[in-house]
Amino acid sequence: MAKRLFLEDEHNKLKAKFFEFADWWMPLEYVGTVKEHLTVRNAVGIFDISHMGRIIVNGKNSKNLLQYITSNDINKLYSGKAQYSLVLTPQGTIMDDIIVYMISEEEFLLIVNAINTEKIFNWLLENNKKFNVYIEDITFQTNLLAIQGPKAEETIQKYTNYPLSNIPYYHFKKDKIVNKNVLISRTGYTGEDGFEIVVSIDDVKEIFNIFTQEEKITPCGLGARDTLRIEMGYPLYGHELDENTTPWEANLGWVVKLEKGEFIGKDALIDKRNKKTKVLNGFELMENGIPRAGYEVYNQEEKIGYVTSGNYSPILKRGIGLLYTNSVYEEVRIKGRDKLLKAKVVKPPFIKNTSIKKGEKKNVS
User: Fold this and answer.
1) Alpha helices, DSSP H only, in the chain?
2) Is 112 exposed, middle or buried (0-12, 13-18, 19+ CB in 10 A)?
3) Which of the following CATH numbers is that of domain 54-137: 3.30.70.1400, 3.40.190.10, 3.30.930.10, 3.60.15.10?
4) How many CA atoms lie within 13 A of 297 on its CB side?
5) What is the pLDDT of residues 45-63, one digit of tens each?
6) What sign has the CA pseudo-torsion 220, 223, 225, 230?
7) Superfamily per CATH, domain 3-49+140-232
């Protein structure tokens, strides 16, 4: 049975259309995926992404545990800084991609993919024996909202006294919104500027209703979240990332810090560094069609790979997607519904990333 969002009644009031995703019953769209997509690109939209897992790690050895269990260098973090990272199997493949928030020297918050929450929680417990820290899954005690778009800061600034311009990219602050305690981070999955807010279930309904009644903010579903992230070339677990894929193959070598010391999967990664079995890239259709995950990819008559994610880009007004192939190609053909569609291979993102404010360096590690 699918898990239910705490705010499901509020989504129903907004006439959301639901579907099952990652074992959760989630809003797909409210007024239409394309309209919601364009709202985020041009103004501001709000997503309820409370299906994402939230895990607290607390104790004097928390940093040591996370350094051992993640691929990035936890020592680069400081209080108020977030970091994109990977949790790897001993074989050096991707168990999940996560964001680590350093609340203090001893307390961290992990945001993990919905489908992997239980898996990552149990993996932390399994590897905690020699570290002996406190680990708690707070997914059902809290909610996670994403407010995304070029007008996100100016729109929600009036609901908090803290100057949001003081929060750099991939940083966060514990403060108040409409007098409710929140953790607000300048992060997101859309390629636009914006914030993600962790708030208790006791306070989220008031905040959500205030934001959705704000005429400048449009409620958005996972349909738009998917098309937005595909335009940016952002990977999704279960599509571009899985336990059969290494960071090298997924173009995520930049979050693997081999020099930091021992961590799970390190030895396997060293061995597999120059042994890619597949190449991840993007593609744009050169004729009409909407590509979908699972479509086969061909070079002439030879099957060379598969589409991992595909959809219609409301900005480019054509089909785009991500694919794995057995080598590097400039043009391929995508097979869908018994038709071969011509596509050019391109390096994502498909459009400019504006999530980083002008003059600010990208620093997610």
Assistant:
1) 8-13, 33-42, 62-69, 117-126, 152-156, 201-213, 222-232, 266-272
2) buried
3) 3.30.70.1400
4) 34
5) 999 999 999 999 999 999 9
6) negative
7) Probable tRNA modification gtpase trme; domain 1 (3.30.1360.120)
